[in-house]
């Protein structure tokens, strides 16, 4: 069992969480990454054993228009700060995954600057997709290039060029040797070159046998990315959507159908998915829920269904954040550690996340367990996770009223929230409170 088979993630958008300026002056006037050091103990108490953090490297604005892959963003500090952060995480048995923005670069990236200056004579003219010198663009460069989703600040690179692939692979070698990272989340993996991702997997396998590659994939057949020749995981946007809409519509059939869609791909793949209820690109879960009390059953499902659970920084406190056009900073706020240092003791939502996270750490076998549906109605849902002689039963209720649950289950179990111990003789009779969840471990 590798570390990522039992991983519980905490997701940090560092430019936002540290309160860094949204535009880079390229001067180090504050070592802001060090503001995250006090959070490591909090993250550990939440029951997380891995951090996905990014973007980290020198960029102009939001971080995904990289201009120097081997330098920590000046707004966050210097490379020694990043080494120190990762070392401290490792000392606390926490793995660190960084953003790998390899599909596109910023307009100030050295190779693109060379193209703008030397045009047809640039040695890097084949580094970019669909580059034409007889067209123009919004910046009046006198040339045209493809960009990610039409955003001119994000210049698509040409991975069909072996020199580009080798450059990016060298970046990964540097990150592993210099910073000792444990994995990479591949930004925009749904449009990233498959040859590059395959070569990346081959490289990382030789450098670290437990290195983890996860791709940002919104739509498509996830098995195209998750296989022995490509990535170990992708973002599970299918389940993300089902978890909030299934509660807003009182429709557990949507969630169960989505889970079946995942498990039909095979037990290994369904357990490999990176599950989340919110992130730096979508509205906060507490904002999306019509009934705020559904925060409990949503997270019980996040931590017990097949896949690796992830909490986006701040959502363990049930903070709000609405997705608005051209206002991503709402989703990426600064957080002051002093305001939340006692949250695990004083905030019921944070207590919930901590109990679920520590349940997963205490029972790493859940990360490789099978899944079997036990009960399904619009408003109640129960399932079994099983690995060898270990079992987990999750029961959730999205109705305002209590519900009586009868399951054909035998054996001794302990409920993680109440500590109640029961020995069932084939009729597991449970009364579950409205808008709540229970997790039984046996």
TrEMBL record:
GO BP, sorted A to Z: carbohydrate metabolic process
Pfam family, one: Alpha-amylase
InterPro entries per UniProt: A-amylase/branching_C (IPR006048), GH (IPR017853), GH13_cat_dom (IPR006047), Glyco_hydro_b (IPR013780), O16G_dom_2 (IPR045857)
Molecular function GO labels: cation binding; hydrolase activity, acting on glycosyl bonds
SUPFAM superfamilies reported in the protein's UniProt record: (Trans)glycosidases (SSF51445), Glycosyl hydrolase domain (SSF51011)
SMART domains: Aamy
Transmembrane segments: none
Protein keywords: Glycosidase, Hydrolase
UniProt name for this protein: Alpha-amylase
Gene3D superfamilies per the UniProt record, alphabetical: Glycosidases, Golgi alpha-mannosidase II, Oligo-1,6-glucosidase, Domain 2
